[in-house]
Amino acid sequence: MSLNGSGDGNRELIDSRMIKQENEDGVNEKSPNQSNQAQDTTALTPKSNASGEREGVVVKKEETQEPDYMQSYQPLPKEEGFKVPGIKYEDDEDLPEIVWSEWMQKTDTIRIPDLNAKQKKRSEELSSLLWQEFYNNGDPTTHPEREILYRTFKIREAEVSYIQEKLGTDEVKKDPIKLKKWNHLLFKSMISMAHVTLLGQDWGRAHAAFKLCFRLDQEAFGKDPGAYYGFGLVYYHFKKFKLAVEAFTTQLYLFPDSDLVPDIHCRLGSSYKHREQYALALKHYTAAFADQREAWFHSKTQLRICIALCHSLSGDLQKAYDDLKRLEVELANQLQSLSGPPIPGSPLFSDRATVLRELGWVCYQFDNPQETRHQKLEEAERYLIQSRDLEPNHGKTYYYLGRCYGENKQRAHDAFLHYRQAIDKSEGDADTWCSIGLLYQDQNQPMDALQAFICAVELNPEHSPAWTNLGQLYLQQHQFQDALQCFKNALQHNPVCPAPLKQHIAILERELNISSAHSQAGNRSVAPGVKLPILQEAWKQPIPSELRQRQNEANLLKQFRYREGSPLWKMAELGVTRKRPKLEQDEGDEMNAEQAALCGILDMNKQHLDENSKNIHHQLLKLKKPNLERTTVSPMTMDDLPTGEEEYYPMHLASTSDAYSHLKHKLDLEAEKDEEVENEEKPRLHRLPHKFSLMAPLRVKLETSAEEILSMASKRIDCAEKYVPIFEEEVPPPEPPRAPQITIDEKNKLTKYPEAGYRQTPLITVESRAEAQLTSLQQFLQSSNCSIASVRGLTSALKMDLSLFSTKTLMELIPDQTIEVRTQYRMRGDQNVNHAGEATWEFFSAPGSAKVIDYAQYQAQTFKYCLKEEEEKLRKNGAKYGQIVQESGKKGVYASEPLRQIKFGTNIDVSDSNKFPKQLKELQKLPGFCRPGGASDMLSHLGYTILGMNTVQMYMKVPQARTPAHIENNCFASVNINIGPGDCEWFAVPYENWADMKRLCDEHKIDFLRGSWWPDLDQLLREGIPVYRFTQKAGDVVWVGPGCVHWVQATGWCNNIAWNVGPLTSFQLEVSLISYEWNKKQLYNSLVPMQLLCWQLAKNIQFTVPSVWQMVRGVLIRSLAYCKMIAKYVESCGKVIKYQPRQSDPKGREPTCVICEVEVFNILFVKQENPEKSDSVYFNYCVNCARKKKFHKDESFYVLQQITFDELIAIYDKCQLTYNSKKLNLVA
Q1: Rg (CA), the chain
Q2: Residue (of 266, 265, 261, 200) closest to 234 by Cα position
């Protein structure tokens, strides 16, 4: 490859500066002993992550300890009937699977090492929580505790082998009690095996062991403090970031007070960054930085770099620049303050190089005018050169410099030289190959450019810019068929600018006029002077072929390593037992092989022996030399010599048959133990419960008095040995509801007749005011069987004036009020396509804003335009018009047409009684159970406003305006009225299919709670998910039941009003509590504070329904006990709790933790940030986050109590069940 000339390094179609890098943390995980890595590691910084790869923008896959797992690996068959709750397994099908039957067949039950008492205790402590400690050494074969790891692994292998043998016997199979006990023993051995294989860096076996443990006992798996963490480490290592997120978030939910919380936040931030969810990545990086404990994965400086990079990747370049610039100055000052010269490769040295590199890249990305562009490029070049001087082996620095030089045609040669340097240091970087191809293309070297682009798409088949530039190259050579294929490939992989690509595709298709005749002729003879190989042959060119061969060889090596497992398990010398020699041994005795090996080492090191070693050497010399022909000498070093402090000296093989018999006997005894005896030992208590859940099973009766609860809770802190649990503290992670499985016959029927999957939507017609007030209407809508229903005639029967909510009225009342406006694409209700015209679940809905009067004019203009358009069609086509309208409704029409944008005015607040008195008064005509602020509405008792939930919001629509699929906040029911004049089309899925919808969102890489998505109806029906589909006409009221997933599209010009209601039913309470806990696990803020809501209900309501009272009373018991525990804990830390009553501000809201966003009830931990500034603010923290910030040592932390315990006792005692139904009128 040669270069003779210059090039600018970019193209008009897609500016490759906008490519989002996959690895842009710019920092790496800590590993202080990097020199002991088992494989080559990058010489960039002394820190690398768990899988050995660099998290920064530099990733040299060949240099990482464990390279990226490639898709070409063929997985082994998966185990049947095994699913992990909350974790989708479709994503890990390409991970290395270990077949247990094959593994166990290789288990050597003849050679079982033993453990002394000290080793046995340490073996029982081995857990994934010790990952940092074991990985610090880098190579498990050189770790000081490798012998314990090896022996534990071999013992667990033998245990599993014997237990599986017992489980296969008829004696155990036919006895349910024995079967349960032996399965429990299998779980204990297997979870230990999972932890040990992880610590030994045997990733394939660790993955298999963790999965098997899930199947054996999911509840016990959740109680193991290191299980989810270890599982997350495995998935993170294999770059399965979605599954890693599921595991780590579950770990945070179950053990929020763990010392590993900052490390987990770091890994979650990295995982979300790789998934391009930068807001969530920023949230977790910020949480890790706020934690005063040091994370092992990233230092505080590295976390600041990560935070800046999240700003950069999300488009806020100025914020990223300011943060990096500030950090660069601080690091420069720290280096200058050092007493001696800085050590290359030290963390401070490496961090500054990273900051300079990322600062240079941010400068390059600024979109400056052409006249000032050179200034930013010079600044970027200056930073990058400094970074290169600090870390000359970092490939991305050279790539960035190449990009800077590529902007100047006069420096194209410098650009090429730096690209070559980047390739030498990181051959597997597709961006670099793409940039090299652009340079060659500018120099009119099409063959070299072709090979570079092919290398880019070989490394990353979804590299849209490479496909685009390859298409341009073919276009220049008049190879239009190949160009068309390349452009189509680029369009499929999320291009930055899809419009130019679609234009090129449309022109090429039109010019080629693809038909059967032309497809036979092809484009191979279109241009007689064709220079380039066709696309199918381009892969066979020399450079791509060599690159592919090297990648395949590396991949085969990775497969082999995963199959073989950790090299630690092959160090058989670690399994021999060492005991003291018999010093009174006769001279005629013969030394064994190990004694001979030890004697030989002592002979070679006579001058280094201490008195104890000399004595051992003297005793060994008295023995006869062994027969060398039958002696096997184990490899030993001076490190293996006894020190005099050990309890054992020369080695000999253990009596292995006795060891295996002893192991079997031990397991047999454990299986005979009583379950009650086994569970007698009390779990070790923390000062506070490590997990608090509003759905934790109670250990006390509901009739327990408040004084008793407070007394019991006080003992949790004051006298832990006398504490009797009030509620279960080890709670499994919450799960969404599971729909009943459909039968094979039902599935076959749905396959043949998909429309059979539609459910009939209840349509209730109300003809009079009396019918509107019927209790039966309320009971039907609030029943758990009613997912969604349409009530027709209700507004007219109640003589409601809906014109008060028309666009005209709104223009008169609030013409200048700014509202949220969403920009969307116009499509049919049963269709959702992307820019390439392909079906997708991801829905484009860009936020914006406008004034009410502006949107009202837009509504009117679109109506006039549509009328004019229809008149034109009618005039031109006459009788054929009906046929054209019918054809335009066919599915897929929008795939071949340019997508037209529309605007949707949403979330218009109409709750101000001063601005909308008539409108709010009109809504009071509705029945009590569905009117805003009704007496039986739980949300009306909250005490403050939640916009859109216990207040009314309005929506202004044009045809095809969409409300994407969603579930209401905390699964509360909702009411929606169509003001008209046009209709809306509704789609809904029942609450019990929530988990199925979550699974499908995961498959389409969409966040169920935060994402914008529009489901594919055909796929839902094929999956056997029932769907409601109906039309909401003007004046119709739609009741959306608790937890119902729904999405709406306007079919005409209309306005809608909507709000949430909280029916006082056990079903609504249960669903909301499940959602509240599930949101915690998903790190999603619940808008409704369920603790406060239950206390408010107990204060204001007389309960007549036993199931509702039981649920509220249970929440009160848990909440009261936990509040007392927190108060006692604060007192024990020496902090004073100050009383500050809750503010009676209707526009206020319940405090939430600034870090984890959970509800903070009653006892607040408040910290003043930047107290020296006049505009300083106060932030609320939950007790767990306050502990992480060491609130007891920070004078700027205040602890406030909003409700006294006397007040809580009074509310608790008032919460009683009354059987007089007249005391609570649910209808009024």
Answers
A1: 35
A2: 200
Determine the average pLDDT of the residues in 648-665: 53
Contact 1219, 1109 (CB under 8 A): no
User: Quick check: 1201 pLDDT over 90?
Assistant: yes
In contact, 1068 and 938? CB cutoff 8 Å: yes
Q: What pLDDT is stored for residue 53 in this prediction?
A: 31
Q: What pLDDT score does 509 carry? A: 83
For the ranges 247-256, 403-412, 605-614, 942-951, which has the lowest average pLDDT?
605-614
CA atoms within 13 A on the CB side of 695: 16
d(CA 1075, CA 1064): 16
The Cα 935–Cα 931 span in angstroms is 9
- Using an 8 Å Cβ cutoff, are 770 and 1039 in contact? no
CB 901 within 8 A of CB 824: yes
Do residues 532 and 453 touch, judged by C-beta distance below 8 A?
Answer: no
Strand bridging mode 1054-1061 / 973-981: antiparallel
Q: Mind listing the pLDDT tens digit for each residue in 528-537?
A: 445 789 888 8
Q: Which helix (H) or strand (E) holds 848?
A: strand 845-851
369: preceding bond cis by omega (within 30 degrees): no
pLDDT of residue 644: 35
Q: Output the CA torsion 615→115→563→223 (10° steps).
A: -150
CA 649 to chain centre: 50
- How buried is residue 1176: exposed, middle or buried, by Cβ count under 10 Å (0-12/13-18/19+)? exposed
Q: Which positions ≥6 away from 807 have C-beta within 8 Å? A: 856, 859, 956, 1055
pLDDT at res. 359: 94
Cα 1023 to chain centroid distance, Å, stands at 24
- Locate 865 and state its tokens: 């335009």
| Environment class of 935 (CB within 10 Å of its CB; exposed 0-12, middle 13-18, buried 19+) | middle
Pairing mode of beta strands 758-759, 1027-1032: parallel
What token pair was written down for 963?
A: 């409300």
| For helices 347-365 and 300-313, angle between their N-to-C axes, nearest 10 degrees | 10
In what order do the strands lie in the sheet containing 763-765?
A: 763-765, 788-792, 1037-1040, 973-981, 1054-1061, 953-957, 901-909, 818-825, 845-851
Instruction: Give 1044's DSSP letter.
Output: -
How would you classify residue 1134: left for phi > 0, otherwise alpha for psi between -120 and 50, otherwise beta? left
Tell me the whole-structure pTM to 2 decimals: 0.79
Strands (E), 751-841: 758-759, 763-765, 788-792, 818-825
**Selected residue with higher pLDDT from 95 and 999:** 999
Nearest alpha carbon to residue 119 among 709, 796, 577, 678:
577
Determine the length of the chain: 1228
Q: Which residues pair with 966 in a beta bridge?
A: 1046
On the CB side of 705, CA atoms within 13 Å amount to 4
E strand segments, 674-749: none
Q: Which of 392-396, 744-748, 830-834, 1135-1139 shows the lowest mean pLDDT across its residues?
A: 744-748
pLDDT range class, residue 428, cuts 50, 70, 90: confident
Question: What residue type is assigned to position 1217 of the chain?
Answer: L
**Chain Cα centroid distance, residue 95:** 18
For residue 1049, give the amino acid letter: Q
Cβ count within 10 A of residue 729: 18
Q: Among 1214, 1118, 1116, 1107, which Cα is nearest to 699's?
A: 1118
Tokens read off for 545: 């072929």
How is 1054-1078 classified by DSSP, letter by letter?
EEEEEEEE-BSSHHHHHHHHHHHHH
**Considering only CA atoms, which of 765, 776, 683 is closest in space to residue 729?**
683
| 693-735 pLDDT per residue, tens | 999 999 999 999 999 999 999 998 888 888 889 999 888 888 8
897 — phi, psi (to 5°)? -110, 150
Cα–Cα distance for residue pair 717/939, rounded to 1 Å: 35
* Helix, strand or coil, per DSSP, at residue 78: coil
